Each structure stands twice: as structure tokens, then as C-alpha cells.
Amino acid sequence: MTPNWQRVKDVFCSALEREPAQRAAFLDRACDGDQSLRREVESLLASHEQAASFMETPVIEAAAQVCGEAPRESLVEQRVGQYEVLSELGKGGMGVVYLARDAKLDRKVALKLLPAYFMEDRERVRRFEREARAASALNHPNILTIYEVGQSDGQHFIATEFVEGQTLRQHAAGALLKIGEVIDIVLQAAGALAAAHAAGIVHRDIKPENVMVRPDGYVKVLDFGLAKLTQRRTAPVASEGTTRIVFKTEPGVVMGTVSYMSPEQARGLEVDERTDIWSLGVVLYELLAGHAPFEGATTGDVLVAVLDREPTPLAQWREVPADLERVVCQALSKEREERYQTVQELSADLKRLKQRLEFEAGLGRYAPSEDGDPSGAPSSAYTIIDPVGRPTHESGDGRETRAPRIAEYLLAQVSRRRRTAVLVLLGLVLTAASVVYILQFARGRQAIDSVAVLPLVNVSADPDAEYLSDGVTESLINSLSQLPGLRVMSRDSVFRLKGRDLDAQTAGRELGVRALLMGRVVQRGDGLSISVELVDTHDNSHIWGEQYSRRLADILAVQEDISKSVTERLRLKLSGKDKERLAKRYTENTEAYQLYMRGRYFWDKRPGDVDVLEKAIRSFNQAIEMDPNYALAYAGLGDAYLFSAASLGRKETMARARAAAKKALEIDDTLAEAHTTLGFVKMNFDFDWPGAEQEFKRALELNPNYATAHQFYGAYLIQSGRSNEEGMRELRRALEIDPLSLALNWHAGSMLYYTRQYDEAIEQFQKTLQLDPNHSLSRVGLAQAYLQKGKLAEAIRILEEVTTARPKAAESRPGLAYAYAATGKRAKAQELTNLIETSAQGNVTYHLARIYTALGKTDQALRWLEKAYDERAFNMFFLGVEPAFDSLRSDARFEALLRRVGLEN
Amino acid sequence: MTIRASAPQEVTQMLLDWSQGDQQALDRLIPVVYGELRRLASRHLRRERADHTLQTTALIHEAYLKLVEQRNVQWQNRAHFFGIAAQLMRRILVDHARTRHRVKRGGAAMRVPLEEVVVAAEGLNINLVSLDEALTKLAGVDSRQCRTVELRFFGGLSVEETAEVLRVSAATVKNDWSVAKAWLRRELLRGEGRDT
């Protein structure tokens, strides 16, 4: 029987108003045994859950977005931002690729324009930008360099290095490549993958089309991490019948190729770097054999082969060393656990093989006996008598030498390959940077380190001149953005203000910038007059102004001209004074600068990775050695000690942090970084909350754009109980300034957790995990939030995974033990707790107090807390906000403890 | 069918007549509005500049301004007009989606601008013809929900505008919209299930 529709509607709508977790209970009540009603509502709810964006875009608007792609062809000879489009290079999964000339730097670039439909989903655009930025941070000789991710006229684009050469597909067409060349190509591609994997980026779409080979044999891998962004979760379906085309995910776009898909990818499962190892294996096989390893008449057939069939042995296609066959086999193991686990292992095997081949080629016809094979039997040039047993990498050094982290790699590459070039480059960077330093400090404390270009006002009679004023505005934003160190508000933020009548102070406050560039455009006949003015947002005072009169003849040139001129004037106007102080704060020693940057890179990787902080400390110390007056390096050193491991003991590390910060302030007492460090020491170690507040406020006054100061001040506001809202606002501000920081993203999740906004915390941790899927602290954080939401099984599953993967990480075991305790798995909790008690890791006392609280053993919990207080355990400053201690809050002993850490109830 | 040369006063009068219950006025009105919308949609969609995002409401506004005597603008007329226009958008687009499938088989696919709409709908994973059928079915269950979908999805109206046209509260529109979307999506999925 069909239930009454009105009733269905009412129950459905009421259910929607409730938290998903409470819906079942609500339906029990509301349907009161009416099974058909309940079934109907539940099926609608299920449909609703999956229908978030369904029909949300009115159909005509979607059409207009598709139309945005239409003028593709006409882009040749047009301009996109600073790029002049020269010709079309091809169409790819991500849209059309053009050859263009960067008018500013006068170099050729490849310009990828993303299709307009791609932009219909804001979240996707955001994700795209983030991922593309992450990918653009990859710096490796075999990775195509991304110059810019940007937009112009609403058109999103990626400008990359232009490689003259062929795709590997084209390169390998025709006669089979020599084995040596194949190995060389694959080794270069593997190098690129290793660097990307070290940075947490999986390519996901390795295939010959994504590998470029230059005429000199140099290999470049393209499109890192971008594949998943354009992919829709559609299972590959058997269709038209070639192996080349897979599934249409978006109108007109062909994604990926099943032939190179790993079995887990084909099944639609989560993938990790091992999927790239598989795909590289397919490429290797194909280059050697001249045939793909998994073939079929239809897409479906190929998929079946990928999932179930072993490829034809290479030996059937050509004569190959048995070792090479084994490398291919291992890369193509269906079970990823049986595959090479890291690209380095694959590379190590290939390198060894290559050496042997070269050695052998030199020797003539005899196989070498370096692997203990004494036979010395004759063989053809490329046949190697393989040693008995497993491949050498298992017993060799393959597993010992872990992947170097990306910066290390980069620096290593730098020093080895292109030292001279890089030094020249660094010189240039420093020159540019000094411009910014000057810009920041020319006006004493009123650092102009951020500026917003307000939409220029069109005061012409002709409303059509609007495009002109907007064009100039955007052009100004773009060119100012190129000044390193100057934060320029995005187009989106400033155009929100368009048409509003605001004074500079208000606008400055809303946008959070120190200066505004405002102006107007008047068009008379074919004459154009543009006046601009730079205003200090603190007091509405005029810093500088200028008027330009030009002919309208070539608008683009006019825009370019003006923004260049404004940028130049801004720079000149703000240069001049305070060089001595700058010299103290910063360094002219390029190596010191480089080491400092390296230290900061490691520092941001800090949460949950102790080794990284050791590296940061080393880098900062080396920087100080190079330039003993380098205040920033001292501040960096102090920061690194803040979170450093307990091998020195808490008291010692914090003493060192304090000393370093003070040393920095001795050199330059206006260094926001050092005040921030000191504030953290006061808050975290001295429990001197007012003192900490003073330092943070001072830091923010000195540099309102220092993300870490906002971050720590936010933590202060929340943990001291001052204001959760203000605290979260500070953290959001920090994230605006530095949206890609792993530490910051994770910390924001934690703060949401401590302010008990568990849904938001979950969301934030998930976001952080997109930056680094293996970030165990964020996974633990996510689990803790699930625990609070009553998603117990999910929480425990995650924690068990983390603990299995990283049993010794400081956060994993205590997290799991707490979850066991909180969910009544007392025996398991106790067992793990015993294990924890015997280990001597930092912060353990605090964690034990949490676990015992969850077990209901108040006395023991308080005893551990006393200990935690005595040793100033790192987490003690969370005492006021820790949800785990809620049941202790009424206990007088706990209250006394709170007072001792400077927190009154 | 000649649809040119309808004086604004005539359209206004037709609207007034219709709002006073004259069903034949609607029959006369529809081809006029249909023609204008079609013309406007095609023109907008043919525009080359990508940054001129086409908004359905803007389109309908434009049609309205063209067709209706402007000095005599009353909200009630406008609301009626939007209601009709959204219905017509549905008809235009669905018709086009139908013929497109036929034309495609014939091989001579003319790249008409309206084509883009159908492609776009497919991009959103919506088959307009199936959606139309599902909507007709929904109208049998709950006609107001069907109207809500027309106004929101085909007419591009906001929740508030929809509420004004239907003379219900915004909350009701929101509820209707959620239920209708869930219902339609389920219906469309079932339909897909049958096809494969």
C-alpha cells in the first residue's frame, strides 16, 4: 500500500532536521510501526544523502559553463593573463594545452586551460588549486615544472615548463627501443615518482602520454596528482571496444587508460603510491615488448586481463635479461603487498641491472659474478645469469635507504647538478626578496606587506568601459602578486567589495591588509585616463598617487604598462631606509638563507614526525654558523626546539627554545617570529598565560601576516578559556595566510576538537589528510572526534590501523588505549596501557591520565597528572579544555591542578 | 507559427487575463514567450565570451522586459511570467533533448546552441527526457513540488523567488525542494536500472 504522501513528506522533512545519527530513533517514533511509511522515508533519505549537488545548478547556467569551452580555437593569438597564446599543442584530460609565450619573462610555456564545466563545483576548484599548488611545489629535474596556477577572465589555467620533444608514446612508436634506453627512461620516470611520493603525491595516471622525452634523452613526467581531480567515481564499463579509450567522465573528456590501471584502481579502491609502481611496470613492459601486457578487444577484456591474467613472459617478445623480467613481474604483482613497496626499490633493482649490463657490455660476452654466480657461462650481450633466490633488493640496501624527503632531494640535486646556476638564481631571488623587505620596513613599523587592489571605479559615461576598469584591476593584482613576500588579496576577495562605498580603514579591516590601491578609470573618446592612489589603511593617509593618460588603441598593452609602472613605483616609493636593521634580521649569505628555508620546510612537517625536527634544528644551526647575526635563523631554531623530541628532556629543549628566541630578539627586538616563539614557551612551559598573550599580541602587531602568530594566539585564546570564537577566528586567519601548511591544518582540527565542534573537527582532519593521507596525528585526531560522535567502530578501526602502521609513534598507542578504555574494552585497554607505561616517551604521563580517567580510575589518573605537571608534559596546557577530563572537573584535586597551570575554572 | 510582433500591451493584457482565470489567454501567451525565450537563449548561448555567465533569471527578465509593457509592471504579473517561463524552459529543453537524440542517429548533428544545454545536463548526470517523465509523474503525486522543480531547475529561480511565485513560505519551498530532489533522483536511478 502506498503511504500517504503528505505524511511521507512531513516525516522526511523532520528527519532531515535531525542529526543523521538520531534519525533512526526518530523514525522509530514517527512511523510507529508503519513499515511502508518507514521504507518510503528511508529510501528518500538515502536518495537525499547522495543527492547533494543533484539539480542544484539550474540547467541553463550549466549550459553557459559548457559554452565557456566553445571559443577554444579562437584563443590562438589571444592573451590569457600574461601569456600570449601561440598555438594549440593538444587536448588532454585536463582540457586544451596551448603553446604560449610568457610576455613578462619572455619564455615559452605550455598553457593548460581547464574546461569551464570543471569550475561548476567550487569545492572541486578549491581542491584543484590546492593539489595543483602542492604539485607545483615538486621540484625535480624529471618533473615538468609548474610555473603558475591561476585564472584570468574566469578562465583557470596552469602554466608549465614547455618541453620540446615527444611523448613517450610517440618516441616509442616504430622499432623497439634498446634495452639500455628503456631502462634509462624508466629510471628517470621513477626518479620523478620517488620525489612526488616523498611529498605525498601519487600520480595515478602514469602512461606513455604523460611522459615526455626530449631530443637529448631527458625525461619529464607530466600532470602529477591531477588525474584524480578530474575523475568521477564511475566504474569503468566495457564500451566501444578499443583498449585506449576508457570511460567518459565529463563531456568530451577521456580519462585515463585501463591498460595502465592497477587492479586496485580498476576496482575503484583507494590507491597509494604502489599504483604508480604498477603503471610504471606496464610502461616498462610495453617499451620492452612493443605490446601492452594486458590487452583485449574491448575495455572489459582489458580489465579482466588486468585483474586476472598474468602477462605473456617478455621472453616471448624479445630476448631480455631474466633479472629484468623479474623486475617487471614484481612491479606487476596483482596484490600490491607483493609489489615493490617503494619506487626506490624498483629503481635500485633497475640501476643494479643497468650497471651490470654496462659492465657486461664492456666485458664482452661474459656475465659478471658479482652476485655470487660463479658459472661465468657465456650469454648474449643482455642475458645475465641470474643469481639464485629472491631479488637482491630484499637483502640489499633497498629497504634501508628510505626515500629522501623532497627538500633533501632537491638540495642534493641542486648541489650536484647545477650549483652555479642555482647560485645565480638564488642571487636573483634574494634581490627580489630584499625589495620586499624594504617594502615592508620602509615605513618603520607600518609594514606594507599586504595590499589589496580595490576594483577601479569606472567613471566614464559608457558603462561598457567597465571591462576596462576590471581588466586593469586584475592586471594590477596579477603583477603585484609577483612581488615575493607581498601578500596581495585575491580577485575574489576584492571584487566582493565592488560597488560598495567604503573608506580605506573599513575596507582595510575587512580585507586584513595594510595598504589599499584604489583608483578610477575615465574613458573619453579614444583617450584613457587612469588615476591610482596607495592608501595606508591604518590612518587613511595617502602614501602615493599617480595619474596615467594613454590612448585606448591597445588595451592590453595599456593594462600591462600601468601595472608594471605601479609595481615599480610602489617598490621605489617604499624603498630607502632601514637597511641596517634589515641586514641584521636577514642575511646576505645565500647559503645561510638556503639553510634557513630548508629548516622551515622541515619545521612545517613537524606534527608527528620527530626526525624532521632534528633535521630542522641541524639546518637552523648550520644557517647560524654561516651567519651568526641571522636573527631569523635563531627564531627558527627556537621554534624547532619547541616541538622537539624528548631525548634531551623537556626542560632542556624548552630552555634552548627560549634561549634561541631571546638571542633573536637581542639582534632584532622587532622580530615577530621570535616573539611568537617566546610566547609559546611562556604558555606551554611556564604556564604564564598573560606573558604569552603579550608576546603574541606584540608579534601580531609587528607582522599581522605571520600565520604562526595567529595560530598560537588562537590556541592561547581557546586553551586559556578566553574565547573559542576569537580563537577559531585567529586560526582561520592563519589558514588564510598559509592554507597548505600541514601543521596548521592539523592544529586547526585539534582546536575544533578541543572546542568540541566535532563535526567541524572531522571535516578539518579529513581536509588535512588530503594534504597528506599518511599523517598519523590527523588520523588519530579524526578518530578521537569520531569517538566523541559515537562512531566507535570507525574510531577504533582507524586507531588500530595507525597503531599497526606506526606502533612507536607517540600518539598512536595512547590514542588506541584511550579508545578501548572509553568504549569499555577494558582488558585491551589495560594491556596496551601496561605497554605504554613501560615505554619512556614524552607526554606519556598525560596520556596515561586520560586513559585512566576513561577507565574510571580517578586516583590513578590524578597521580599521572601530578607527574605530568612535574615534568611539564607538553600537553598539560590543554588541561582546561581536554574533553577526556570532563569527569574529573568537579574533583578538588583537579581544580587545584588547574590553578597550578594558571587556569582557574 | 508567427510569434513576432506582439505588442507589449498585448502580452500584458494576456497576462492579466490569465491571472484572472482566462485559460485561453495562456494558450495565446505561451507561443509568444516561447519564441522570445528561445531566441534569447540561443543568442546568449552563442556569445563567445566565456565570462558572460548566463543566468536563467536574467534571461527571463530580458524576455519579460521585451514582452511586457514596462510601465505597467506589477509583481503579480512578473511572478506569473516567471512561472510560465520556467514551464516553457522545461518544454524547450526537453523537446530539444528529444530531437537531438533523433538527429544524432541520423548523423547530421547540427551544433545548435540549445545543444549545449542538453550536453550540460548530461554533464550534471541528468537526462532531460527522463527527468521530464519523472517530473510528470511527480506532478501526479504532488503538483506543487513539480512546479517548485520547474521554477528552481528550469527557471533558475532562488528559493525566495520561487516562494513568491507559488505564494508559499520559503520554508515550504525548501522542504518541497528537498523532497522533490530526493524523489526524482530515486526515480531516475530506478529508470537507469531498468535500462541496463
Explained architecture:
The complex is a heterodimer of chains A (905) and B (196). Chain A is an alpha+beta fold and 905 residues long. Chain A contains 37 helices and 17 strands. In chain A, a hairpin with a 2-residue loop joins strand 2 and strand 3. In chain A, helix 28 (724-737) packs antiparallel against helix 29 (742-754). The radius of gyration of chain A is 30 Å and the shape is globular. By secondary structure, chain B is mainly α. Helix content of chain B is 77%, strand content 0%. In chain B, helix 6 packs across helix 9. The longest helix of chain B has 32 residues, at 75-106. In chain B, 40% of the residues are buried. At the A-B interface, helix 1, helix 3 and helix 4 of A face helix 2, helix 5, helix 7 and helix 9 of B.
List keywords for this structure.
heterodimer; A: about 900 residues; alpha+beta; 6-stranded antiparallel beta sheet; 6-stranded mixed beta sheet; 37 helices; globular; B: about 200 residues; mainly alpha; 9 helices; about 75% helix; disordered N terminus
Classify the secondary structure makeup of chain B into a structural class: mainly alpha
Radius of gyration of chain A: 30 Å
- Oligomeric status: heterodimer
Number of helices of chain B: 9
Poorly predicted sequence stretches spanning 5 or more consecutive residues of chain B: 1-5, 46-54, 103-113
Biggest sheet details of chain B: none
Number of beta-strand segments of chain B = 0
Largest interface, with Cβ-Cβ < 8 Å?
Answer: A-B, 39 and 46 residues
> What gap, in angstroms, lies between the N and C termini of chain A?
59 Å
Rounded mean pLDDT of chain A is 75
How are the strands of the largest sheet of chain A arranged?
A: 1-2-3-4-6-5
Helix content of chain B: over 70%
Assess the beta-strand content of chain B as a share of residues. Answer: under 5%
| Rg on CA atoms of chain B, Å | 17 Å
Helical coverage of chain A, percent range: 40-55%
**Strands of chain A, total number:** 17
SSE run of chain B: HHHHHHHHH
Query: Given the helix and strand composition of chain A, which structural class is it?
Result: alpha+beta
